[in-house]
Amino acid sequence: MTGPDIPYSVIIQEADFDIAHLQRGLLASAAQEGAVATFTGYVRADKGAGNIQCMELEHYPGMTEKSIEATIAQAAERWPILAAGVVHRVGRLYPGEQIVWVGVSSKHRAAAFSACEYIMDYLKAEAPLWKKELGEQGEHWVDAKETDAERASQWSGEKG
Amino acid sequence: MLHIVFFARVKEQLGCAKFELEWDSGLSTVADLQEHLCERHNGQWREVLSEENIIRAVNHTVVSDDALLCDNDEVAFYPPVTGG
User: Fold this and answer.
1) pLDDT digits over B55-67, tens only?
2) A8-22, A25-39, A96-110, A125-139: which has the minimum mean pLDDT?
3) With contacts defined as CB-CB under 8 Å, which chain B residues touch A130?
4) Integer angstrom CA distances of residue B34 from A87, B37, B47, B59
5) So where are chain A's domains?
6) What residue segments make up the domains of chain B, in order of their start?
7) Which of B5, B7, B53 minimises the CB distance to A130?
8) CATH architecture entry for A8-152
9) A129 and B82 in contact by Cβ < 8 A?
10) Stretch A49-55: mean pLDDT, rounded?
11) Nearest chain B Cα to A41, which residue?
């Protein structure tokens, strides 16, 4: 795995994040032109049976960052993107809280949209992160969804 | 020395987050190491580590069972990922 050859940042943290601050940082790291596409993920309030009180996210320090960096490098090879950033929170999170942010800048919107979606799809399918839901009926680890693996694998069949 | 780490459900089911094993060149692949761990511990270990969807990584790179091991490698066993 080689690192991306564009300005990038990958941060795993417990603290919440400010998406406006992240977007400004993304623009400051590369030429300010064209487009920025971002994605923000939030904790859902209900999933299946029983309401969720909160969730706990675990990661593999070192490998999680490396996995996301590899995904950014792949995106940078595939689309002409100028810079990319990912923030993923770990620890205890409550419904409505921000979990993940992906931002990509590019000269044109098409590459920014595609690369942002690609990075998010591969993050979900490959980055070592695990969710445990805690609710009224106890706690359980979230099962991986087949659809997430399928979304990521779709990118290998088409040319961006 | 091999550094072995477990995460999430695997870590909880084994009741073990990490441990170190004296380097033994007899354990040449990840599959050898896994068999060694299963023999050395109770039946629960074999059940958990043999699950079809368990992911194995050496030095932060996902590998297959036949990946070769070296002294000082970090070997991880973890369940399918659910981030994002």
Assistant:
1) 999 999 999 999 9
2) A25-39
3) 7-9, 78-79, 81-83
4) 33, 5, 11, 16
5) 8-152
6) 2-78
7) B7
8) Alpha-Beta Complex (3.90)
9) yes
10) 80
11) B84
